[in-house]
Design a protein that fits this description.
Layout lengths: L5 H14 L2 H7 L34 E3 L7 H17 L2 E5 L5 H15 L3 H5 L10 E4 L14 E5 L16 H25 L6 H4 L5 E9 L11 E4 L5 E6 L5 E5 L2 E4 L7 E5 L1 H6 L9 E3 L7 E9 L27 H7 L8 H5 L7
Parallel strand pairs: 1-2
Antiparallel strand pairs: 2-10, 3-4, 4-5, 5-12, 6-11, 7-10, 7-12, 8-9, 8-11
């Protein structure tokens, strides 16, 4: 496949960006072939992209029941054991009976769908790639620098846990996303308690070191694609932060990489998909896993997902392997770093992950 000359590519990127209509605007215009700027080639594919997909419907990431974990010690211990096992093997699990009503999750999905299906003139006033803005809508945040473009549009919120300006949110999803934001902060704290216990630490350990200090909510819209085999919803990657909590509609397309093959993460009504980021793998000294995952494009049906990313963006807060988890037999694998170091070492197509680049040299025995 011929590569677009850089000047032509830049012209195409600018023309796409100036519409402010995103990928959905392309689909609404009636295209039957996707623009070349969205086509993946062998130079932009990840080394795992062509690995096989497991088609065994009996194999999926663990589904863990949180029912009774706040009242029954044995149920909590059982859930903690299952979380530990899931985080060591998969880096992913689905949580059910987690305390957020299914009706709230469904209303959040519906509210985000309403926003993206609004006229472009309504959405334009939120259009921005400025990370300092609490509310921003765009397609491909790194449009002009990324080697790969995703077949999706995103509405992002950085509302904090005491958001007091509801009028700033789009009317289409305003009320439900305020409710969702508040519930997700509580859910993040509960997850960090359970993860702390799964590591053999006190329940408040991960919260106390800032693992739920900040949360960004990314509301993603993946339009149906006329040529899904040529592009990608989200390329193979691992999340940079500590914990991600995601809800998705019933369209599917999310996959996780484990044991040299891809597995579909089948949508479960009312479930939260929980996965760990690079920073969690780092502070646990590789005890817990941050798994590669991706989202495939679909020819039929537009997919909605809402991901809540828990992290600590402080430029001065450094994290290294937790001292209680290291020993002479299990020495630290990483230096102390900031989240910025992860961002600076991330790459979609290189053979090494951000963590592999940051690993300490092995000591000779």
């Amino acid at each position: 496949m011929e590569t677009i000359p850089s000047s032509d590519r830049m012209s195409e990127l600018k023309a796409f960006d100036e519409t402010k209509a995103g990928v959905k605007g392309l689909v609404d215009s009636g295209i039957t072939t996707i623009p070349q700027i969205f086509i993946q080639d062998q130079h932009t594919k990840h080394k795992f992209d062509d690995k096989p997909i497991c088609r065994d419907p009996k194999i999926n990431i663990p589904i863990i029941d949180f029912e009774g974990i706040h009242k029954d010690a044995s149920l909590r211990s059982q859930a903690v054991d299952q979380i530990r096992s899931a985080c060591e093997k998969w880096g992913f699990f689905q949580a059910i009976n987690h305390g957020i009503p299914t009706s709230v999750l469904d209303q959040a999905i519906d509210g985000i769908r309403r926003f993206f299906e609004k006229d472009v003139e309504v959405k334009k006033k939120y259009f921005s790639r400025d990370y300092s803005k609490k509310i921003r809508y765009c397609s491909n945040i790194y449009l002009f620098s990324a080697p790969i473009l995703y077949w999706k549009d995103t509405l992002s919120f950085d509302l904090g846990c005491d958001f007091s300006s509801p009028e700033e949110l789009p009317e289409a999803c305003r009320d439900i996303m305020i409710t969702y934001n508040n519930l997700m902060w509580k859910t993040g704290e509960i997850l960090c308690e359970l993860l702390s216990e799964a590591l053999g630490l006190s329940p408040n350990y991960l919260k106390d070191i800032g693992c739920v200090e900040e949360m960004t909510i990314a509301n993603n819209y993946y339009p149906e694609c006329p040529q899904p085999e040529l592009t990608i919803g989200v390329t193979t990657h691992s999340d940079p932060g500590f914990v991600t909590v995601l809800i998705q509609d019933r369209i599917g397309g999310l996959q996780v990489f484990c044991e040299d093959q891809w597995f579909d993460i089948t949508p479960v009504p009312g479930a939260l998909v929980v996965n760990l980021g690079y920073m969690m793998q780092l502070i646990t000294n590789d005890k817990f896993k941050s798994a590669y995952h991706r989202v495939l494009s679909k020819k039929e049906g537009s997919r909605i997902s809402i991901g809540s990313f828990f992290m600590n963006n402080s430029c001065s807060r450094r994290y290294g392997p937790i001292k209680d988890l290291i020993s002479a037999e299990n020495p630290p694998l990483y230096p102390e770093i900031t989240l910025k170091d992860i961002y600076n070492n991330q790459s979609s197509t290189e053979g090494l992950s951000a963590l592999e680049k940051l690993k300490l040299p092995r000591r000779c025995a």
